[in-house]
């Protein structure tokens, strides 16, 4: 689990320390003694895709998987430094080699899986065998690039993850790794469960619905499209035993329904609140608090760079530029044509910023702040489109080129009101240039399946950026192994940057390479970056000891407790 105090809490604590060095002033939160028992209900916008970290793709699934499956370490985000800090979890301690090419973990020996079986180093090794084996088809198989290769896209597992004994495991990398603890910090899976399943059958196996984990919670029940109920995992001998007995994630696709249930107390916590609702909750509901999580989530418009129908028909062998979005100039024009400031101010007010690249400003030394947002400039957009041959040749008010009209569907997932709001403005902006858009709202599971299988021309979605700032899986030209490169953007300059990043762990060299990466993305506009979104979280005051942070709203969930015992 990945955790950090909120920026607000940090500021308040500094004020208190500076004003009263000898005696800290107690607050309601610090004066309350945590108590065991009770339950909390969290409202979520959509159901999870799968309860298995091998395959989970969306943020909510990842959050819940982190509660069920433990990792060797857990991390928190230091906002002052703009980087991760790590703490022991399933491991008791670790030792990183001076050249950053290996890390040795000493594991906790008393831990048990939720079915009572003992945890050991063999579980760690087998988990990474599954993550990296091509037949398992994990969405995280790009991790294989860090390890010794046996063949194309397959690692020598015995030389990459070595078990010395039940409590000692060593990771060996094929290069100096910038952040060895991140690479070795994926959730661990139970070998005794997964070794019985054929690799090709993993994705469809019932284990994805009934997980056995070693985290602070375990699954009690999963009622599809209704709720995921977790209970405290007392069998694990976990040293971070939660105070809560139960943690329920209630599926509420309708935003207004989520807000109303937060007001009525039917749910205890809801996130991604609209600014106007957050303000109203603070002013009118004394039993609710609202806090802000800064800086890792951005929305974007995806432009498919390739002819996806041809690509799919040829099983990925035939790659040609998309007839609308394959041109850099066209993508630049589309960004110039969209009034992102109007979208941001109209929906988010002060709770967001226009996005420029995929690296947030919270990563203080890695964000290239010299790059400025593309301004809203319809005239510049017209010039670029004309340069590429897009003109209205038949006076029908739609641009055309070689007999093709500039028209397309813009797909968005249901349950995201900010994207519906943005889509309307985008449609009006582009229509003014002679580009015709049809907005189509799709049920989330269908939307994401189609997005990841490259079936859409254009869409609005969002990413939470990776904490290790490893973007190869999102932007590498190797479309067969870059699962998250949903736009199919290809650039050999970036591929070389990714290769160089693997060869250095020197901070200044890494910073320069990441700056160059951002310059190329900013120039080519494979997506139109819309805005960084502050996550406004509302919660009932019965729920205590929350420490919201950019990593996960469930930060240090084992420390949560309720005051009424319900």
Question: What would your notes on this structure say?
Answer:
With 566 residues, this protein is an alpha+beta fold. The protein folds into 3 domains: 1-52 and 215-292 and 537-566, D-Maltodextrin-Binding Protein, domain 2 (3-Layer(aba) Sandwich), CATH 3.40.190; 70-209, Dipeptide-binding Protein, Domain 1 (Dipeptide-binding Protein, domain 1), CATH 3.90.76; 297-533, Dipeptide-binding Protein, Domain 3 (Dipeptide-binding Protein, domain 3, Roll). The protein is built from 18 helices and 25 strands. The strands form 7 sheets. A 7-stranded mixed beta sheet has the order 10-11-12-1-13-23-14, with helices on both faces. A 6-stranded mixed beta sheet has the order 16-22-15-21-19-20, with helices on both faces. Strands 4-5-9-8 form a 4-stranded antiparallel beta sheet. Residues 1-28 have low confidence and may be disordered.
For this entry, give a set of tags.
566 residues; seven-stranded mixed sheet; D-Maltodextrin-Binding Protein, domain 2; 29% helix; Dipeptide-binding Protein, domain 1; Dipeptide-binding Protein, domain 3; disordered N terminus
């Amino acid at each position: 689990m990945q955790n950090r105090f909120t920026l607000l809490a940090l500021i308040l604590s500094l004020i208190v320390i500076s004003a009263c060095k000898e005696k800290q002033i107690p607050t309601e939160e610090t004066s309350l003694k945590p108590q065991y028992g009770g339950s909390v209900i969290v409202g979520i916008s959509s159901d999870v895709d799968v309860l298995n970290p091998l395959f989970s793709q969306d943020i909510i699934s990842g959050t819940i998987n982190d509660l069920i499956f433990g990792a060797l370490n857990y991390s928190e985000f230091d906002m002052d430094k703009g980087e991760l800090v790590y703490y022991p979890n399933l491991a008791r301690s670790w030792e990183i080699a001076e050249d950053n090419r290996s890390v040795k973990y000493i594991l906790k020996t008393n831990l048990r899986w939720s079915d009572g079986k003992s945890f050991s180093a063999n579980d760690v090794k087998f988990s990474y065998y599954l993550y990296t084996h091509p037949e398992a088809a994990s969405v995280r198989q790009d991790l294989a690039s860090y390890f010794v290769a046996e063949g194309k896209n397959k690692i020598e597992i015995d030389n990459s993850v070595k078990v010395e004994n039940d409590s000692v495991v060593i990771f060996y990398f094929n290069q100096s790794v910038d952040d060895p603890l991140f690479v070795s910090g994926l959730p661990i899976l139970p070998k005794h469960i997964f070794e019985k399943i054929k690799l090709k059958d993993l994705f469809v196996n019932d284990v994805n619905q009934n997980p056995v984990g070693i985290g602070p919670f375990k699954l009690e029940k999963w009622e599809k499209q209704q709720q995921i109920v977790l209970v405290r995992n007392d069998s694990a001998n976990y040293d971070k035993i939660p105070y809560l007995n139960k943690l329920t994630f209630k599926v509420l696709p309708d935003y207004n329904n989520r807000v109303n249930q937060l007001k009525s107390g039917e749910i205890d916590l809801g996130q991604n609140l609209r600014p106007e609702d957050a303000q109203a909750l603070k002013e009118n509901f004394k039993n609710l608090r609202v806090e802000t999580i800064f800086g890792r989530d951005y929305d974007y418009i995806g432009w498919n760079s390739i002819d996806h129908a041809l690509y799919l028909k040829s099983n990925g062998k035939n790659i040609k530029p998309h007839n609308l979005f394959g041109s850099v100039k066209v993508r630049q024009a589309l960004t110039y044509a969209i009034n992102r400031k109007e979208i941001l101010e109209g929906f988010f007010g002060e709770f967001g910023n226009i996005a420029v690249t995929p690296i947030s400003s919270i990563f203080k030394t890695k964000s290239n702040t010299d790059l400025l947002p593309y301004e809203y400039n319809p005239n510049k957009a017209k010039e670029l489109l004309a340069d590429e041959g897009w003109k209205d040749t038949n006076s029908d008010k739609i641009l055309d080129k070689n007999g093709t009209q500039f028209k397309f569907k813009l797909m968005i997932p249901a349950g995201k009101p900010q994207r519906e709001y943005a889509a309307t403005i985008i449609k009006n902006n582009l229509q003014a240039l002679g580009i015709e858009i049809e907005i189509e709202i799709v049920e989330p599971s269908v939307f994401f399946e189609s997005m990841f299988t490259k079936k859409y021309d254009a869409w609005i979605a969002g990413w939470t950026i990776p904490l290790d700032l490893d973007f190869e899986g999102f932007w590498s030209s190797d479309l067969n192994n870059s699962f998250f490169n949903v736009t199919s953007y290809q650039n050999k300059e970036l591929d070389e940057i990714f290769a160089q990043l693997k060869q250095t762990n020197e901070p200044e060299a890494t910073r320069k390479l990441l700056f160059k990466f951002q310059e190329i993305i900013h120039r080519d506009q494979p997506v139109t970056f819309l805005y960084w979104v502050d996550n406004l979280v509302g919660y009932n005051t019965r729920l205590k000891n929350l420490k919201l942070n950019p990593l996960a709203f469930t930060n240090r969930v084992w420390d949560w407790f309720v005051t009424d015992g319900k």
